[in-house]
Amino acid sequence: MNTLRKRIVFPLVVFVCVIGLGFAARKGARADESDKPDVIQIHLRDFCDPPTFNQAVGPGTCIGSGLMPFATFLAELGEEKSVGEWRFNPNTIHVEEGTKLVLVNRGGETHTFTKVEEFGGGFVAPLNAPSGNPVPAPECAQVLGDGSLVPQPAGPDNLFLEAGETEPGPTIGDGEKQTRFQCCVHPWMRLVVNHKHEEHQDHR
Ligand SMILES: [Cu+2]
User: Are 193 and 179 spatial neighbours (Cβ–Cβ below 8 Å)?
Assistant: First the structure.
């Protein structure tokens, strides 16, 4: 019995140890390549309450388990020019060129992740003025002759993420000091990407 156990257990222990060592070695090698992660997740967040949002804006506007009623959302927007629960998290990052962003919509609404030259309003007029962004960013919306706004088509620099969706985002390119991204629905949802390489050059 004892011998049988040795025959089975000992090789098993050796096998597990070898696998473990292999794992550790691979991890070490990866850590040596770069001490910075080259992929950063950006969470797109909101806290919309489905019944009140869907009643006010339209069916399907909000899904999930958020708890902020539409009236509270509007009240906070009016007072603060933003609603804290609606945000990109993080909202500022310092990264090396070549860093890939991965976008995760953790909220209940659709958000866009749009690269803009300058921050501005989005394509939902009723959210632009109260948030202090009366002029839409051209990357977000086209302004028609009658003043109405038309969303710009989706593309690699203008990603639309539905609730719960995860998508690969842009890769941070070179030659720029800073890149700005915003949501074209909720224009106070913003991300500033500072490029490390360029930053060092500035301080010389
Ligand atoms: Cu949004």
Answer: yes
What's at 56, amino acid-wise? Answer: A
Tens digit of each residue's pLDDT, the chain (204 residues): 455 455 544 444 444 444 444 444 444 334 444 555 599 999 999 999 999 999 999 999 999 999 999 999 999 999 999 999 999 999 999 999 899 999 999 999 999 999 999 999 999 999 999 999 999 999 999 999 999 999 999 999 999 999 999 999 999 887 778 999 999 999 999 999 999 864 444 444
Distance 175 CA to ligand 1 centre (A): 28
Question: Measured in angstroms, how far is the CA atom of residue 63 from the centroid of ligand 1?
Answer: 14
Q: 121 is written with which tokens?
A: 């309003």
Buried b / exposed e over 180-203, threshold 16 CB at 10 Å, is: bbbbbbbbbbbbbbebeeeeeeee
Task: Write down the domain spans for the chain.
Answer: 1-33, 36-202
Q: Which CATH superfamily is domain 36-202 in?
A: Cupredoxins -  blue copper proteins (2.60.40.420)
